[in-house]
Design brief:
0% strand; single chain; mainly alpha
Length: 98
């Protein structure tokens, strides 16, 4: 039987015990204020990696249900898809201006 994911309240407490708030952790990493809170509720591999690094863990230790046996994220969150297309937008604008 697989291990359960950490409870969101346990993750929040661990982050606070590490000396930072959820909002500050998000902002420190160039994310929206609520990014860490959102990741507690739904998969967002990029932010899961940030949280895990802060806690000295691997993301799959905290969220085993979100990772396969090789430690790769299962599926792809809408946040990561949005982020990747958002990152291309300035490049498209630059190309159109040239």
């Amino acid at each position: 039987m697989p291990l359960p994911d950490w409870h969101p309240e346990d993750i929040k407490a661990a982050i606070r015990k590490s000396g930072i708030t959820l909002t500050a952790l998000a902002l420190e990493n160039g994310l929206a204020e609520n990014a860490v809170r959102q990741t507690l509720l739904r998969p967002w591999p990029r932010v899961q990696a940030i949280i895990a690094a802060r806690l000295g863990r691997r993301p799959e230790e905290i969220w085993p249900s979100r990772y396969d046996a090789q430690g790769k994220p299962i599926g792809r969150s809408r946040h990561d898809r949005h982020r990747s297309t958002e990152a291309l937008a300035p490049q498209r604008q630059d190309a159109e201006a040239a």
